[in-house]
Design goal:
The complex is a heterotrimer of chains A (100), B (173) and C (641). Chain B is an all-alpha fold and 173 residues long. Chain B is 72% helix and 0% strand. In chain B, helix 2 runs antiparallel to helix 3 and helix 5 packs across helix 6. Classes of the chains: A mainly alpha (100), B mainly alpha (173), C mainly alpha (641). At the B-C interface, helix 4 of B face helix 26 of C.
Chain lengths: 100, 173, 641
């Protein structure tokens, strides 16, 4: 029997990798994929908890997270397209209109 | 008792971490998407170990089948020639590394104080008996009916929003 | 008795309608809203009066206005004999003066504005007299002050009118400041502002004193004098009387309603209403009595030599208000309120007659330029003559009964200054008769001294003005009949009616003494009239000679004892000096502007530094956010350890 903490450590590792990708990549599409990575990390830990606690509410949460992730992907990618159309770049560090 | 579950877990965990790293380090976004596809299949398999067949199924259908295709579609829509010739990371990537490692450490440290709550009614045997999909559906359409309806609204709004955002603006003359 | 609510709220409704729709729709038909409202108010007031005579009273909280801890203010109504009398006075005068205004204000471009202010005033005055707690009283008090300001400055394009409005407002501020503090002290002492609770507890505090800056201050004296501060301001007593004569810049109906019959008597009403507090402090009573007597004498002497028709009547008002305070001060609250009630009729009548004269004379106010007007305006002449007879205390008329009762109770009451103020009051009665008839003789008798155009223009006023004159004239004659003393065979109903609220001041004297006091007051009244007849009808050269002879005295009186000049030198000029040299020069320029300009400059400089944080780069924001998450996680972890 695999202990719960293994799953949680795996989830933490994937989450941290997602954070690293989001914080360091220049390409906005990869940053976006990093976000998906973080969401998946959370899903892993939720499903693991659900299994060990014999409670289906974790699965319900995962279900909703996937729904929201789909919505988010659609909107986010639409924003990326609009952005690329206006700026002709997908590199985040080349955009700094909000500089104070 | 065999070591089989641990071995399986070891393989999948190693593969998942490796693929995650590959996803965020590839220069070509198309490669990233491909690795991610593989990653999602591995995660779906892991869900199967955890007696979550329905979640595994929608992981494949929604994530791998829909979201990643969307990513791929967008990646191919954009001009990627110069992508292969510029830096992957920002100049100050060590700071990002530091922060993410710190997050991992703090999450790992939190494991020490992990206390599991009360167990619920859905034992593995019960879920296997009535099947996972049916069990989930029963809860979803009774206790969580209202959030479920809201989720459908969110999807509707996302569809409309995506169309509005991605649409080419008509210039007014 | 629920219908009593109509009394204040109908005028309020009329005000709202006129102020909202007057300019665009009603215009010169504004009185069609205002007059029915106030007339119905009057009818309801009379009905209420009947019920109160039948023995009913009412004390009801309608709506909680402010609730803060122990502090509770509600819109509440108290209807007892005192309120009922005030309701009759206010609504009767208000109704008649509203009607009079149709003719007087005809063709004025602010016609709707005038009527809406009148309605608002009526509402505030009714709220004042019907209040069952000090906060609502204060609301009405300030409300009538505000309306007074609006109406004095009604012709705001005239500088003197605008200044007079300001003066009234600022001078009243002095009095209201004390009044406000008085209410605070009441709340501190009794923990409530409701009349019934305050007055019920008052006796228990009769000997309490406050230690203030090392002095022991008798609590009831303190409260009474602070409340009296408000009365001094509102009722134009010394030394805050200066605003009332200037207030005559307002239209004459306003002078009649606000500055003669109703608002200025609010001070007397306040003292009468708070009689359980005042009666507990002998010091306060003496102050009230002396203030009243001195003001009365002081204003009457000024009235002797003035030439401005309305100002003479204004000084007469100040003088008569002094009379009412004199009465309250000797404990004869009933007599004070009785005089308030009769005075409202004959003084409003005097003002309205003056307005009628002004109307005919094309705005002329100098009585030296009038004369022989009785030929042209007989109704005005007769009504004004009756009002003057009433104020002079001719037996049988309203003024006689109230004045006589005051003088008798002053003479025979227990007050230590009773005899003194009786003497002063009697002297004032003589002076009052004299200046009132000087006014009559100079205005209506002799030969016309104005210009030819004015003479050509002379005419009796329109019906809408004449009818209120005649109705008020009935009041000036008959209003006193409800309080005919036992001595001359009357029932003294007024005193009996008021007894539950105001108590009853017993005179300690024999019948012969009472006859003597009455005889003296009648005698001085007739002497005054006779002297005026002698000086202005028989020997018209005499006033000029006397002026020559006593030029010093005349100059002092003519210049109103130089009180305005004194205030100008002592208060106004130093204030302006301080404002200019200290407040503008130092406080404003050096301190406030330094703060006002310095703080934004400092914030601006800091922002210049802070904006560097805003790089506009998404990664920086993301790193900060992640670090924030880390900090929170770290705190949680450390607490779990």
């Amino acid at each position: 029997m695999v202990p719960l903490s293994w799953y949680l450590l795996l989830s933490a590792a994937v989450f941290s990798i997602g954070v690293f990708g989001f914080l360091t990549r220049r390409n906005i599409i990869i940053m976006f994929m990093s976000i998906e990575l973080m969401l998946n990390a959370v899903n892993i830990s939720l499903v693991a908890f659900s299994h060990y606690l014999q409670d289906l509410r974790g699965h319900i949460l995962v279900f909703f997270i996937i729904t929201v992730a789909a919505a988010e992907a659609a909107i986010g990618l639409a924003i990326i397209i609009a952005l690329f159309r206006n700026k002709n770049t997908v590199h985040v560090d080349e955009m700094h209109e909000m500089k104070g | 008792m065999s070591m089989l579950p641990q071995l399986f877990f070891g393989y999948f965990a190693a593969a998942i971490i490796l693929m995650s790293l590959l996803v965020i380090t590839r220069k070509n976004p198309v490669h990233s998407v491909m690795w991610m596809l593989l990653l999602f299949f591995h995660i779906a398999s892991m869900y199967l170990f955890l007696n979550a067949e329905f979640i595994a199924a929608i992981q494949v259908i929604v994530y791998a089948g829909a979201i990643l295709v969307l990513f791929l579609f967008v990646v191919l829509l954009l001009n990627l020639k110069d992508e292969l010739e510029t830096d992957r990371f920002i100049g100050s990537w060590p700071a990002g590394l530091l922060v993410s490692v710190a997050i991992f450490v703090s999450l790992a440290a939190a494991l020490k104080s992990l206390v599991l709550g009360q167990s619920g009614n859905f034992t593995v045997a019960l879920v296997q008996k009535i099947t996972h999909t049916k069990a989930l559906g029963q809860i979803l359409y009774t206790e969580y009916l209202f959030p479920f309806e809201i989720a459908s609204l969110i999807l509707l709004i996302a569809v409309i929003g995506a169309i509005v955002l991605a649409k080419k603006r008509m210039r007014s003359h | 008795m629920e219908y009593y609510l109509l009394i204040p709220f109908l005028p309020l409704a009329a005000f709202l309608i006129n102020i909202l729709f007057g300019k665009a729709f009603l215009k010169d038909k504004a009185h069609w809203v205002a007059i029915p409202a106030v007339a119905v108010s009057w009818v309801v007031s009379v009905m209420t009066m009947m019920e109160v005579i039948g023995g009913k009273t009412l004390n009801q909280n309608l709506y909680t206005w402010i609730l803060s801890g122990d502090f509770r203010v509600s819109v509440g109504f108290l209807i007892d004999p005192l309120t009922a009398i005030m309701l009759i006075v206010v609504t009767t005068c208000s109704t008649l003066i509203h009607i009079y205004s149709i003719g007087y204000m005809h063709g004025d471009k602010g016609y709707y504005r005038f009527f809406s202010y009148l309605s608002l005033f009526t509402f505030c005055m009714l709220m004042l007299v019907m209040a069952n707690n000090f906060m609502q009283l204060y609301f009405g008090w300030e409300g009538v002050g505000l309306c007074s300001y609006f109406l004095i400055g009604y012709y705001f394009d005239k500088k003197s009118a605008a200044d007079a409005g300001k003066k009234a407002f600022i001078v009243n501020r002095f009095g209201d400041f004390g009044f406000g503090i008085g209410i605070f002290v009441i709340f501190l002492t009794f923990g409530t502002t409701y009349y019934d609770q305050v007055f019920a507890q008052a006796a228990g505090f009769a000997t309490k004193s406050y230690s203030f800056l090392g002095y022991d201050v008798h609590l009831m004296t303190l409260i009474a004098l602070l409340l009296f501060c408000g009365s001094i301001g509102k009722s134009a007593q010394m030394p805050l009387h200066v605003w009332l004569p200037d207030a005559m810049e307002g239209p004459t109906p306003v002078s009649a309603l606000i500055h003669a019959a109703t608002m200025v008597t609010a001070g007397v009403f306040l003292v009468a209403r708070c009689n359980p507090i005042f009666s507990l402090s002998e010091t306060a009573m003496i102050v009230v009595a002396l203030t009243g007597a001195i003001t009365s004498l002081f204003a009457a002497t000024i009235g002797l030599v003035q030439n401005d028709l309305k100002r003479i009547i204004a000084y007469s008002t100040v003088s008569q208000l002094g009379y009412m305070f004199l009465a309250c001060g000797v404990g004869a609250y009933t007599a004070g309120v009785f005089h308030l009630y009769t005075h409202a009729f004959f003084k409003a009548l005097l003002f309205l007659c003056a307005g009628s004269v002004m109307h005919a004379m094309g705005g002329e106010l100098n009585i030296q330029k009038m004369g022989n007007l009785r030929k042209f305006m007989p109704v005005t002449y007769w009504t004004m003559l009756i009002a003057s007879l009433s104020i002079a205390g001719v037996p049988g008329l309203a003024g006689f009964f109230s004045k006589d009762e005051i003088l008798w109770l002053a003479y025979s009451g227990a007050s230590p200054v009773g005899k003194l103020v009786w003497g002063m009051g009697t002297l004032v009665a003589f002076l009052t008769a004299f200046y009132s008839f000087r006014l009559i003789f100079l205005t209506f008798h002799g030969s016309f001294r104005g210009t030819h155009e004015q003479e050509h223009h002379l005419h009796e006023s329109p019906k809408s003005m004449i009818i209120p004159l005649m109705l008020l004239c009935v009041g000036a004659v008959a209003a006193g009949w409800v309080g005919i003393p036992h001595l001359v065979g009357g029932g003294a109903h007024f005193t009996e009616f008021m007894r539950p609220v105001l108590g009853h001041a017993e005179g300690h004297g024999t019948h012969s003494e009472e006859w003597m006091v009455m005889a003296i007051s009648v005698a001085v009244g007739f002497t005054g009239i006779g002297l005026a007849y002698f000086m202005y009808m028989l020997r018209p050269d005499l006033p000029g000679k006397l002026t020559q002879q006593f030029s010093g005295v005349h100059r002092i009186l003519f210049n109103k004892y130089y009180v305005d000049e004194l205030y100008s030198a002592v208060i106004i000029r130093p204030t302006i000096w301080i404002a200019k040299n200290v407040l503008i020069g130092i406080t404003d320029a050096k301190i406030i502007e330094a703060i006002v300009n310095g703080v934004p400059a400092a914030i601006g400089g800091f922002s210049q530094q802070l904006r560097r944080v805003q790089t506009g780069l998404m990664h920086h924001y993301a790193v900060f956010m992640a670090m924030g998450v880390l900090v929170i996680a770290a705190i949680m972890l450390l607490r779990a350890l």
